[in-house]
Design goal:
71% helix; 29 helices; mainly alpha
């Protein structure tokens, strides 16, 4: 029930009226031209191309919107033409439909936008081939669909709305997340931080060669600074390696964290709006280091963190204050790892992604097989039922099916309810007003405008708009509205039931894979910790790029775990060796492990520093213990970190001072012990890490709120 309700949820979203108007104008232009110069059948066919191209431009993608519109229109026109060629022979069309749907299902392995585009091509293949035509007519319909995408692309170029808006929002969201993190650290020195905004900002910063020549200067520097600010904030707030738990130094740390939040928010606002930074003087005064006798001063590692933080914030303001309209080419350093391949060069990348998923355990391969079988079965059932337009059944199945159960089930329920509302509204209007050709076209465009405007509010809302749009659109072609309403309701229900049944017969549950995801996260976190401790062991040989790559791998593994865990929560299956409480406890322990390693990264020694024999021994012990621990997680065996702790105890006994590396190693061991405890508990057992109070975190006392000023 919870999954079903999630599909019916209507979310409050930021509306983009100008973009919605532009997309609906593109559909109106295409329909109007075809009605004026051609026929109603051509208008219906061309409208699908403009409509689908407009939908693609609303997706979360960092590619230029005109490129998305053209790519979608090209795929739609090819699928339409091939569908027309095979439509006369039901066996041939079923083979084509099954193969095309299978490829569209595999397209989800490339990315969500590619998966959506593949789904759109299947839907257009099912709908447009029902319009009677010849081979030459098929070419004409395919060309008109491509024309619809061309019109949308032209409108985007001629009437740009907030250029680079997606990239600006991604970078601003990352900075705003760090500003919120800085404020939370004032009261909770071990506050959690979700790195997803930083990962999105990194994806958004990758540009094609053509984009690199036009990217605003304001989007160049702050992302790298945002990556560096986060560990500095954490190290300043942490009472083990930063400011003490209480006293004047803690008060000074609170002031710096509050000022950092203000500055980061100001930089985020400037980037989002494309304007210079506006900073309050109070924040600037706080970020000035006090002179002797002027107030509390930080010492040791906390002072180094404060100086680094002030320097990074000054650089962020300076980068953002550069001319917001000026551009410069991407540098060679940026071009090395942040270059996005062009559409032609994307083909081999996509083929490699698909090839990696051609294994029985892949959820994308199972999704492709499942959706292909459902599309073929739905088409046969639709043809056998005493209705016209039997394609509604497979169309409903294909449009709601996703690689995971939760989304499929939620979208299926939402689509059916939305379809009921849409066809009821559209059918009522058609029955009461009996609109002519051009009024039906105008009503269809209004529905498109409503759908584009409310795109991000929920599946049920967009499904209602689409259902009404189809009622009016088929009214242009002369289809009886009574028959259309009846067909949509019954066949949409059939298609939804087929989608649900396919998951019962051929499931691809995520729950049994949770231990594998957890093992991958532990392995990635371990490699990240090894890279950082190795920099303490051999400062002269440290390689920043190696640490950076290990950090990115750890983030990717964490994101994969969180995605799997989120999908598993919505599945109607029992746990397979990892209960929800144990999963939450293990996640808390590994998050702490990543946070501790990140703090250590903020204090990496210079290349001229003395090597640390203790760090070297700890690194080698961790390198030796990690593979055994990863296998133990996969095979449901107990974790044993006693050898690693013995190395740490020997390191502590030989050290005259407790440096940052030694203290960080202790916190890391505590997090690993918490992980072992979490995985050793039974399904119903309680775990203190699950309640957010792990051993490592408990060393950092939750601080009282700062007194009001």
């Amino acid at each position: 029930m919870k999954t079903a309700r999630s599909g019916l949820t209507i979310e409050k979203a930021k509306l983009t009226p100008l973009i919605a108007i532009r997309g609906s104008v593109g559909v109106a232009i295409v329909i109007g031209l075809c009605l004026y110069l051609g026929s109603p059948a051509l208008a219906v066919s061309s409208a699908f191309g403009a409509f689908a191209a407009g939908i693609a431009t609303f997706q979360r993608s960092w590619r230029p919107r005109p490129v998305l519109a053209l790519a979608v229109a090209g795929g739609l026109s090819v699928s339409t033409f091939l569908g027309y060629l095979a439509a006369a022979h039901i066996v041939g069309f079923l083979v084509l439909l099954s193969l095309w749907t299978f490829l569209a299902g595999l397209a989800w392995s490339v990315g969500p936008v590619s998966g959506l585009v593949g789904t759109q091509t299947v839907s257009v293949m099912l709908v447009t081939v029902t319009l009677p035509t010849s081979i030459l007519g098929a070419l004409e319909h395919a060309a008109l669909i491509a024309f619809g995408g061309l019109v949308q692309a032209a409108l985007i170029v001629l009437f740009p709305v907030r250029p680079w808006g997606a990239q600006r929002d991604a970078l601003a969201d990352a900075l705003a997340a760090e500003a919120d993190y800085a404020r939370r650290l004032r009261h909770d020195p071990v506050a959690p931080f979700d790195p997803q905004p930083l990962m999105d900002a990194r994806l958004a910063s990758a540009v094609t060669p053509r984009q690199a020549k036009r990217r605003p200067v304001q989007l160049h520097g702050p992302r790298a600074l945002a990556e560096q600010v986060r560990p500095v904030l954490a190290s300043l707030a942490d009472p083990v390696v930063g400011a003490p738990v209480e006293g004047p130094e803690r008060d000074r740390a609170r002031e710096l964290l509050g000022a950092a939040g203000t500055v980061l928010d100001a930089v985020a606002t400037a980037i989002r709006r494309g304007k210079p930074v506006r900073l309050p003087p109070e924040a600037m005064a706080t970020l000035e280091m006090p002179q002797d006798g002027d107030g509390p001063r930080l010492t040791g590692a906390a002072r180094r963190s404060a100086l680094r933080l002030i320097s990074l914030l000054a650089d962020a303001v300076e980068f953002t204050d550069e001319p917001v309209q000026a551009t410069r080419p991407t540098t060679e350093a940026e071009r090395g790892h942040l270059l996005r391949p062009s559409v032609p060069k994307l083909v081999p990348v996509a083929l490699r992604s698909v090839r990696r998923e051609l294994r029985w355990s892949s959820r994308f391969l199972r999704h492709a097989l499942r959706v292909s079988a459902v599309a073929a079965a739905g088409y046969l059932i639709g043809q056998a039922l005493p209705f016209g337009h039997g394609y509604w059944a497979p169309l409903a199945s294909v449009m709601v099916m996703r690689p995971d159960f939760g989304q499929t089930y939620a979208r299926g329920v939402a689509r059916f309810i939305g379809t009921l509302v849409g066809v009821a509204v559209g059918g009522t209007i058609m029955g009461l007003t009996h609109p002519n050709l051009y009024v039906s076209a105008a009503l269809a465009v209004v529905c498109v405008l409503a759908m584009y405007l409310l795109m991000r509010t929920g599946v049920s809302v967009t499904s209602a708009c689409v259902a009404a749009y189809v009622v009016f659109l088929l009214g242009i072609a002369g289809a009886g509205w009574e028959q259309t309403v009846q067909e949509r309701v019954v066949l949409t229900l059939v298609g939804g039931l087929l989608a649900m049944l396919s998951y019962a017969i051929f499931p691809a549950w995520e729950t049994p894979r949770l231990r594998e995801r957890l093992a991958q996260w532990l392995e990635a976190n371990g490699r990240y910790a090894i890279a950082v401790f190795d920099s303490y062991a051999r400062p002269a040989e440290r390689r920043p790029r190696q640490v950076r790559e290990a950090l990115l791998d750890a983030r990717a593994a964490r994101a994969a775990w969180e995605e799997s865990e989120s999908r598993a929560e919505k599945e109607p299956v029992r746990h397979r060796g990892l209960s929800l409480s144990a999963a939450a406890a293990a996640q808390s322990a590994l998050s702490t492990m990543g946070r501790v390693t990140m703090i250590l990264e903020a204090h990496l020694p210079d290349k001229e520093a003395e090597p640390s024999p203790g760090a070297h021994a700890f690194t080698e012990a961790l390198r030796e213990s990690l593979p055994r621990a990863v296998e133990a997680v996969r095979e449901r065996r107990s974790l044993d970190w006693s050898a690693l702790r013995s190395v740490w105890e020997e390191w502590e006994a030989r050290s005259e001072t407790r440096g940052v590396a030694l203290r960080g190693a202790e916190l890391l061991l505590d997090a690993l012990d918490d992980l072992a405890e979490a995985l050793s508990r039974g399904p119903g057992g309680k775990n203190r890490a699950a309640r957010g109070t792990s051993t490592a975190a408990s060393r950092s006392v939750r601080l009282p709120s700062s007194p009001p000023s």
